[in-house]
Amino acid sequence: MDSIDRLVNQHMASGTFPCGEVLVAHGQRIDLHKAYGFMEGSDIAPLHKGALFDLASLTKPLATAQLLVALAAKGQIDLDAPARDYLPELKAGQKHAFTVRQLALHQAGFAADDPFAKNATSIDAAWRALFEMELAYLPGTQMVYSCLGYLLLGQIIERVTKMPIDEAFAQMIAKPLGLTQTMFTPLEASGKLPPIVPTVPNIRPSGYIRGMVNDSTARCLGGKVGNAGLFSTAEELHKIALHLLDQYDPLIFENGNRSGLTPRTIGFEYHDLRFPGASCGDNFIHGAIGHTGFTGTSLWLDPMSKLIVIALTNRVYSSYRGTIPAMRQFRIDLHSIAQHL
Fold first, then answer.
1. CA dist., res. 304 & res. 275, Å (int)
2. In the chain, which stretches have pLDDT less than 50?
3. Of 221, 58, 92, whose CA–CA distance to 155 is shortest?
4. pLDDT at position 96, please?
5. What is the reported pLDDT for 319?
6. Which pTM does this prediction carry?
7. Fold of 65-161
8. Which residues form the Beta-lactamase-related domain (predicted)?
């Protein structure tokens, strides 16, 4: 435990992030849960356990993928159906005949990113631009991690449930699990919330972003979408992780890319020792699943040992891109230590 303290303090001192919260557990047994640093990089607002963090791309596995798998289990979504069955606005043509499953596994043909939303004159125009976007490669031939596919999955979920994705998440995931502090757009929530950790400073007239999604594409689209926008606490992420472990859905825990592509499950990275470069580090447990968020968040869990590693930081407060290499090393070192607690 002292080694995790030293690791976190070292990265705060070197400017990787101003604050962080780490929770390591084996199932329900919590081995370590601590908050470190100050939310705004000064000594004015110390971070305490239970603060709300912008999860960024952890939205993909924890909201979008969970909803997708739940709807598939009910027979409301066919994972192997063409996505156009649910989104007829998608550009026609054989090249675009990707399936829902290919979207979820990041092999639908989309480039890693595209500024379509920033260049649009309205939210409707942005969605039209995404629906009509040309693919970068033939579906099923590559694994290219892309926010674009999960934006489309969010739209599919909304069409099927006839609810905005935040309402679908609240009704189908949060309420059954007793989650009260895991939500989209927390500034719109009624009732008292814990402190919200800020992300990027000095990009708006009012100062840093706090309680608004940091991801610019998600923000342009209203903050309630399939690629980013979820906020939560370490405690509630632990609850979600326990639920995932208890349910053990093969779609979530088993590699779905069987054709030599980089391993993925629906929603998560899948750590296969034969494929180096996982965000948890190459020495972490084979068969573990996890995901990261651009803001400085991550969740990894191992179905065999029930190890759960949650790291929440506001890395982007320190530097939007300059701290990415240091954050990657922090995650590698953290998971190396955590698996031996």
1. 20
2. none
3. 221
4. 64
5. 84
6. 0.95
7. Methane Monooxygenase Hydroxylase; Chain G, domain 1 (1.20.58)
8. 4-319
